[in-house]
User: Fold these one by one.
Assistant:
Number 1:
Amino acid sequence: MAASSPALTSRPAPVSRSADWMVLGVALVALLLAWLLRQQALSASEPVTVGGLQMALPAHSFPSGTDGQFAATTPDGLIVRVTPLPAPTTGGDDPLTLATARAITQGQALTLYRTVTTDVAAVGDRPAGVLEYMYVNADSGNFFSSVLEVVHGYELLVTSGDQLYVLTLEAPEAQWDEVQALWPRLVNSLRFEEVSQ
């Protein structure tokens, strides 16, 4: 009878799976906490007033406006602008007229500008026109290059007294999901300051 080798007869103790489950549990809790912190950071906002128009921008937005125009870049890289303009003498109370006039003006100023949709909204009790638009960023490189940066955005146009406020939210096409997520929050935060008599 042949002698059996000690290496063949001795077996290691079974590995405890409870340690593996604990590590997995800790990893899942850490991921959940990270997700909650990110959601909180994304929903945090800070108030901004431009002329008589108030809104809530995402916290830690970087302001950069010039020439009477307020502009800010959000932490996600989206561009928010508020441009106060003189209100039109006619058609200022019709949001679709405002949106159409703005689309014509932007079509003359921006490369390959096109309106995707036109809609109506409200800021408090004031009607507002809304444009969804796209254009090619002329500064994104050689116009004849095969890769051009397409900018996709929204504009809201609303009058108050003798002012027309144009609220713009736009970003490169690759960030369109972020624009769509922020736009309703931005529009819902809009308020006009009460003028004390």
Number 2:
Amino acid sequence: MKQVFPPLSLILFIALASSCTAPIQLQKTYPPEQVLSSELKKFAFVNFYDYRIPEFIKDKHEGAYAAAVNGYAAGLGELVLKDPGASFLIADTLRDGFTVMGMQAPEFADTVKAICREQDAGLLVALDSIRLWIESEISLEEDDEGDAMLTKDFYLFSNTYITIYTSEGEVIDRCAGEKYTYVKSKYTIFGMIGGPTLAGRHGLIRSLSEESARDCMGKYYPFTENFTELLYTGGQLKATSNSILAGRPEDALEPLRQLAADAGTGLARKAAHNLGIVDRMLEERKVTGEVWNAFMNREK
């Protein structure tokens, strides 16, 4: 019979996970992909998606779509205002009379010019459309008593689409912010029982929209990537691992060097692994500072 062996990386991860470990989140920061000139750093935000049209959106869901708009504006403003040389204003959270097709017409550039002129803005971030919905998956799992039950898992999806214009009506970027998140699970009978609705998930919808805004505008700002590693804990590593998890990796640096110097022992190998994580954390802290300093001082 043919044997299947997992890749070495998976074996190592399982080995780490099976010992006394704790997950720790690491970060890596990158410079912006593009740099905006100073005259383009006056941002205005307008929502052109009319969620009050009953043919598209049910009345009971209007609040959910309003939460998506407000979340997008909040996420956009939070990111833009990290740059002390930029400004941000909300010109309109619901400007009716426009459609996605109409916004593609050449004369729409005149609308953009007029808004930017009114707001003294260099860039217009236009929210073109929003789509919100909930999907479910059914699986067979055990309940608390060990009996097999059908389980229905629910996921909230939020898709937001924007266009970024210059004050002259020129399109410089389009972005689809496609996000989803787990909502809840529930036991069900034949998968026919209902679940959560958009009306009860305004907070989650707002959070997803905030994330979308940060992603879509992120190319103009330093970007931080998050990933998870496993840290050895317990025994002689307890004190150092506690310092690392508490955000003080520099306190663990020298003790880990001493433990890792005792070559050939299991403790030394674990200490070396943790030391590598500490080195990366300290290096990334330095890189993050350099990236943001360069971003803040690029025009001085």
